[in-house]
Amino acid sequence: MRELVYYVAVSLDGYIGAPDDTFDAFPMQGDHIDMIVRDYTDTLPTLALEALGMTPDLTRFDTVLMGWNTYVAGGPHPPGGPYGHLKQYVFSRNHTDVEPAVTIPNESPVEHARKLKQENGSGIWLAGGGILASELVDEIDRLIIKVNPILLGSGKRIFAEREYAPMRAELIASTPYRSGVVINEYAR
């Protein structure tokens, strides 16, 4: 069965983006970026892959799930969508204006994630945001959290507030980088 992996950058105080949905406060240079380009090539936007002359092998992820605010945070997208090399799904209750290569499922995020997990393929990347992550919390199999050495003070939380229900996870790996970023991987 495929895994749903919440792979996301977060500040020390638990934010994945600023109040305006931007994330440019996170360091975009440093040795952690080398690791992302090398090991998480599948998560690079299509335009970045083209600029780097890279082709992802899709062994880590072949599908991405996004909430609307995560989807629009990247600005205008090419016709194939922000991650044209992946199957792209955007969840929104109010918006339908997406590129033809992007799908807005008619079912709930939980129902859709459960279907995707039964299909053949590599991992399913939950790119964000916090509201979608909270809806899918019981379906998340693995969390890969890129903890950035900054405090944002406010913004979009890694998980939106939800009913009190502790979720236990086991730390599988923790890798610090000279940039100050620490990658923590947890399994459920």
Explained architecture:
With 188 residues, this protein is of the alpha/beta class. The protein has a single domain, classed as 3-Layer(aba) Sandwich (Dihydrofolate Reductase, subunit A). Helices cover 20% and strands 28% of the residues. The protein contains five helices and ten strands, in the order ββααβαββαβαββββ. The chain has helices at 31-39, 46-52, 68-73, 109-118, 130-135, and strands at residues 4-11, 15-17, 61-67, 87-91, 102-103, 123-128, 142-148, 156-157, 170-176, 182-187. It has an eight-stranded mixed beta sheet with strand order 5-4-3-6-1-7-10-9. The mean pLDDT is 95.
Please render the helix and strand layout as text.
Blueprint: E1 4-11, E2 15-17, H1 31-39, H2 46-52, E3 61-67, H3 68-73, E4 87-91, E5 102-103, H4 109-118, E6 123-128, H5 130-135, E7 142-148, E8 156-157, E9 170-176, E10 182-187
Parallel strand pairs: 1-6, 1-7, 3-4, 3-6, 4-5
Antiparallel strand pairs: 2-8, 7-10, 9-10
Features:
188 residues, Dihydrofolate Reductase, subunit A, alpha/beta
User: What CATH architecture label applies?
Assistant: 3-Layer(aba) Sandwich
Cα distance, first to last residue? 14 Å
Helical proportion, percent range: 10-25%
Number of domains: 1
**Please, what is the average pLDDT?**
95
Specify the CATH class: Alpha Beta
CATH homologous superfamily grouping = Dihydrofolate Reductase, subunit A
Describe the largest sheet.
8 strands, mixed
The SS-based structural class is alpha/beta
Q: How many DSSP H or I helices? A: 5
Regions with little confidence, pLDDT below 50 for 5+ residues: none
| Element pattern in H and E | EEHHEHEEHEHEEEE
